[in-house]
Design goal:
- This protein is mainly alpha-helical.
- It has helices spanning about 5-15, 25-55, 55-65, 70-100, 110-120, 125-135.
- The chain is elongated, with a radius of gyration of 21 Å.
- The protein starts with a helix and ends with a helix.
Length: about 140
C-alpha cells in the first residue's frame, strides 16, 4: 500500500463507526487505525516541512495582503510564485506519497466486516479495498 492510500484510509476509518462488531473485530480495526495514523502523521509532517522550506519572504509578503489591495503586477507575481511553489511541493511530496507503507493489517472476520459495513456508507471501491485488506 502506498502512503497516499494509507492517509486516505486513515481518514476513512477515522470517520467510520464500529457498530455491532465483536470485541476482537473492533480491536483489529483500532490497531489498524493506529498504524495508519502514524503514517498519516509522518506524511503531514513532510508536507509542513516542504511548505516551510518553499516559502519565500516575497511570497509571504504578497500572500499576507488582502487580494483587493494587490496591484495587478503583485497579483501576477503572487500567482507565479504559487504556481512555482505548487510544482516544487509536488516534486518534494510525490515521492513520499508513492513510498510503500509498511503496514500489516489486523484482520477481522467476514461477520465483523458485514457488521462494519452495515453502519457505514462506503462506496464500492472503498468496500473492495477494505475487504481485500481487512477480512481474514
Amino acid at each position: 500500500m502506498k502512503k497516499s492510500e494509507a492517509v486516505i484510509l486513515n481518514d476513512l476509518l477515522g470517520q467510520s463507526k464500529l457498530g455491532k462488531m465483536s470485541g476482537a473485530g473492533k480491536s483489529a480495526v483500532i490497531r489498524t487505525k493506529i498504524k495508519l495514523g502514524r503514517i498519516s502523521k509522518e506524511v503531514e509532517e513532510a508536507k509542513q516541512e516542504a511548505i516551510n522550506s518553499l516559502r519565500t519572504p516575497e511570497f509571504d509578503r504578497l500572500n499576507s495582503k488582502e487580494r483587493s489591495e494587490l496591484t495587478s503586477e503583485e497579483s501576477a507575481e503572487l500567482a507565479n510564485l504559487m504556481e512555482q511553489m505548487n510544482r516544487d511541493f509536488a516534486q518534494v511530496l510525490n515521492p513520499i506519497l508513492m513510498d510503500e507503507a509498511d503496514i500489516e493489517w489486523s484482520k477481522i472476520s467476514a461477520d465483523d466486516f458485514d457488521a462494519f459495513c452495515e453502519v457505514n456508507d462506503f462506496n464500492v471501491a472503498q468496500l473492495e479495498f477494505l475487504m481485500e485488506n481487512m477480512v481474514e
